[in-house]
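Lecture 7 notes. Example A: sequence first, then its structure tokens.
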Amino acid sequence: MDTIIQAHELTKTYGKSNEKQTQALKGITFEVEKGEFIGIMGASGSGKSTLLNILSTLDRPSTGSIEINHSDITTLKGNALADFRSREIGFIFQDFNLLENLTASENIAVPLSLQGVKPKVIKQRIAQVAQRLSISQILDKYPSEISGGQKQRVAAARALITEPTILFADEPTGALDSKSAKDLLDMMDDLNTNDQVSILLVTHDPLSASYCQKILFIKDGIIHQEVKRHDQSREDFYRQILVILGNLEQ
């Protein structure tokens, strides 16, 4: 399989050298293969959000290297980094981050508009991704006119419209009711299984994590444990995750 992310000895330290410092990451190394659905779990303060921010280019490591699609992102700056982010990375946030004064269609179009893609091509791409995510009927509506589950599907469409190398999802079900959360997870599972979309999911929710093929459990800034689903049912994997989380808290 093709390796799309290589993270090597990542560290992140907050605070100046002459002040009290906090080491959020302490030498994390792992890889993501094309088409994988990977979860990152850990208690609050474990370093999982810091890791996601660094992998998604929203922050920089103190030391270590990250290659995404064979490009070392730790060496990119300014416009080069912005261009890379817009081409290679999709991001789904917990709070949707939709622009309230734009319709669903216009929100989805934003990444392509910033890339200077022609309007005709944008319209075609929106129609394709909207049909794929079953939101064609709400494209003309504003965020205030649609449900939380629909907002998250619009956010997912915006993330996927550029056909990114990797889709990052930060607690994407956190603001959803149980039915909308399950619908979103089923959609992500379908995208991963049938479209080979590579997904890295940060979550505290064992049910969400049970959709993943592999989970990295972060504790005190290191990968404490890695577990693969293999041929387990989702229910059995869910129970295994609960046991591991219980042990992490001890």
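Example B, a different protein, same format:
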Amino acid sequence: MVASVTAGNVQVQVLDKEGRPVPDAVVVVYPSTPAAPVASNATIGQQRMRFVPLVTVVAPGSRVRFTNLDRWDHHIRGTAAVNNVPGAPLGTNFEMRLAGATADATGGEADVVVQEPGAVLLGCHLHGSMRGHLFVTDSAYTLKTDADGIARFDQIPEGAAQLRVWHPEQLVDLPRRALQIGAAPVLESVPLSVVPRRRRS
């Protein structure tokens, strides 16, 4: 999180079209005083035929490690998602085949360095039901919603700001909202136009 001498708090709740909380939505705030996100390392596991976590948020320049925890091979692919950042390049496309784990050894691992902001759809050529998402953000003020559909931001610079909400099943990108950050907390509720599918546990 980026600190500011004069800053405010923002809470955003994302709801589906039936009014229920939506976890794993990406909430991005663009304040009038922008701050670039810092590159970091992240790990996405392939476990029980799923990508874990379902949605991973990183900054450009981050190194993402894919680790196969299943006992069978996965052939991972990453392609630009349909609802990408408007006007942004198509981001990082990649493929990798990861060997399955054995009783004596962990499964295959491979790293990808992402450079361009935008959403990347993750899949597996061998297992068509596998879906995951990598969101490469262009703002330091980016969070995923929790189980209650809420993202809580502290220390956002005061003044005019824009709010963007992204969800992989919201195929038409939602319009950005104008915010005014001040001393009083900002509370926003953002509805999607879809009901996301529930992920199996």
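Note on Example B: Confidence is low (pLDDT under 50) at residues 1-5, 83-91. The radius of gyration is 18 Å.
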